[in-house]
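Exercise 7.
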Amino acid sequence: PPVAADALAPILPGLSAAAISGLRAVPAGDRGRIVETFLAYCETGSVKLTAEAGFVHRNTVVNRLRAFHDLTGMDPTVPRDAARALIALSGARDPDLGSL
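Solution. The predicted structure, written as tokens, is:
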């Protein structure tokens, strides 16, 4: 993803900035949990498996994914949006935002 972020920066300017701006509005602890849940969901594609891996209720995963969508405008359950969000986060190079 970092290579893709660098290569796509000229084509999709502001992609990383768009993701960062919404996520920075949330306290660091909550932001970390939201990004961590998003990344775990991207690995499994399953709310159930993400909940089990994070030792949380499935509704917690759903709520965090909804919060990610509300904050970034990218829906983790839509593959195209999830890919854009992964690229945006990897291009962010900000440890508080879960850079890959």
